[in-house]
Structure prediction request, 172 residues.
Amino acid sequence: MYIVFFGVGIGFLLLSLFADAMLDFEGFGFALLQPKIIAIFMLVTGGVGLALNAQSGFVLMPTIILVISVVSGLLVAGLIYRFVIIPLKKAENTSTFNKEDTIGSTAEVVSPIPKGGYGKIRYNVSGSFVTGPAKSEDDSEVKTGEKVFIMDIDKGTYLVRRHLDIHAILKS
Prediction:
């Protein structure tokens, strides 16, 4: 039985490592029911059971070996979850951001926006520069290097207005 647990644990752990690269396993309603945690539990339970059964001078009843194996599996899986997986999840740094949060921020035109056409802007998000397609909100021409405000986003295109236009509106 412990050989099966150990083998299934190794196989399940390898499978979950490969599958985790393609899918996002966040558990099934309970955090400890993640494939990696289940695999670690099975692997440790099987390994401890095999080790205790293999001890030549150390004879225990099968029930005691099973209890020690299961408790060891739960303990190691719980510790790995608490001290490895949780901190890694918290430290996970994603570069995604909500584009709508950029509305009202300043950007620089890096590719000219012709009258009625499209160009490209660059803006700063958390210390990194991001570029995106842009169109003048009033269909006017905007030259490379001009500072603009991001006024809105329409189907992934930033609608921008020149700084000078904003200052003129604010003064009146």
Notes: The longest strand covers residues 128-136. The domain at 99-171 is CATH 2.40.50.140 (OB fold (Dihydrolipoamide Acetyltransferase, E2P)).
